[in-house]
């Protein structure tokens, strides 16, 4: 008897689209996917409508790979619909896993975002001050577009999520591992991140030995210096999120002479990625051996060298952190 194929779905919410390309980056392995599963929903590659998903029986889809954060009413509705129709829902990529780069918009609300994008942007010509509305009347009738929310959320802040595949976008190895694990029926306990338990530093060829002493007296952004490619970024004063970031990427960015920015999310047993990195950095900052002699002005001078701390420590994880968003005062 021929084994019945699995049914896969892929969906793209608030993200750049890189996760859609990451699926194709598995190259010839896509043929293995076709052998084991029928793709029943993939709007970016198939002519299929939302109503087709609505007409599917509940739990008809075996596995749904959902990428992108929840930014709009449409994103939320599709997250809930695909949760209803899927046996297994996977948050695929940093945006669905943690909120991602779209989540940095949580420092503002909808009105501030619209003002920046449609009214005060130097490249925008909008003399009538028109901003998006959920409903607009045209000669053909009334148009309706999804509501744009104040707050960006990770997928699991909207619906129940079974597994997570981290990365921006997920590395090919992680995607293949997830697919093969599903095919073999060897999925770990619900809620697991389908990636190694080690940090990026554990995979990094530039990781200093335990006997090396790192002290950072100056902090640079990567474009301000030409780092030594044979040495760890941190002693050179460039913030690298490797100590606080889950591995599984084989330190690809670092191997390309760029510091880790944290897309793999927090390390196991350290849910607050930004705070973990701030703590690690605090132990490395210093002007000399006798830290007890530092003045408050010395400390402030050091900390002031960190430009854009929110974007540095919470580039991908602001919505899922303890901070979540800026408090909006009415």
Could you describe the 3D structure shown?
Helix content is about 30%, strand content about 15%. The protein has helices at about 20-25, 30-35, 50-55, 75-85, 95-100, 110-120, 170-185, 200-205, 250-255, 275-280, 295-305, 310-315; strands at about 5-10, 35-40, 60-65, 70, 85-90, 135-140, 140-145, 150-155, 165. Strand 6 and strand 7 (about 140-145) form a beta hairpin. It is built from twelve helices and nine strands. The chain is of the alpha/beta class and about 325 residues long. The chain folds into three domains: about 5-100 and about 150-185, NADH:ubiquinone oxidoreductase-like, 20kDa subunit (Rossmann fold, 3-Layer(aba) Sandwich); about 110-150, no CATH class; about 200-315, no CATH class. The longest helix is centred in the first third of the chain and has 13 residues, at about 75-85. A five-stranded parallel beta sheet has the order 2-1-3-5-9, with helices on both faces. A two-stranded antiparallel sheet has the order 4-8.
């Amino acid at each position: 008897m021929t084994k019945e194929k699995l049914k896969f779905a892929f969906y793209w919410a608030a993200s750049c689209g890189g996760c859609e390309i990451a699926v194709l980056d598995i190259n010839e392995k896509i043929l293995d996917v076709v052998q084991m599963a029928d793709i029943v929903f993939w709007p970016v590659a198939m002519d299929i409508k939302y109503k087709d998903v609505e007409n599917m029986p509940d739990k008809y889809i075996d596995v749904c790979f959902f990428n992108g954060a929840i930014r709009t009413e449409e994103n939320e509705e599709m997250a809930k619909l695909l949760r209803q129709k899927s046996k297994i829902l996977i948050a695929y990529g940093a945006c669905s896993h943690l909120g991602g780069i779209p989540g940095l918009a949580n420092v503002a609300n909808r009105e501030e975002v619209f003002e920046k994008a449609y009214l005060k942007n130097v490249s925008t010509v909008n003399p009538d001050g028109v901003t998006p509305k959920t409903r607009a009347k045209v000669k053909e009738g009334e148009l309706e577009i999804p509501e744009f929310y104040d707050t960006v959320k990770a997928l699991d802040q909207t619906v129940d999520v079974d597994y997570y595949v981290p990365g921006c976008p997920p590395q090919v190895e992680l995607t293949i591992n997830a697919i093969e694990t599903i095919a073999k029926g060897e999925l770990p306990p619900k809620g697991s991140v389908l990636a190694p338990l080690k940090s990026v530093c554990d995979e990094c060829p530039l990781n200093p030995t335990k006997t090396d002493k790192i002290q950072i007296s100056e902090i640079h952004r990567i474009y301000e210096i030409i780092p030594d490619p044979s040495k760890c970024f941190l002693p050179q004063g460039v913030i690298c999120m490797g100590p606080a970031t889950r591995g599984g990427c084989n330190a690809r960015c670092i191997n390309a002479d760029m510091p880790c920015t944290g897309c793999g999310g927090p390390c196991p047993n350290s849910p607050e990625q930004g705070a973990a990195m701030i703590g690690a950095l605090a132990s490395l900052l210093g002007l000399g051996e006798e830290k007890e002699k530092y003045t408050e002005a010395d400390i402030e001078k050091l900390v002031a060298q960190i430009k854009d701390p929110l974007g540095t420590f919470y580039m991908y994880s602001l919505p899922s952190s303890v901070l979540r968003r800026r408090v909006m005062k009415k």
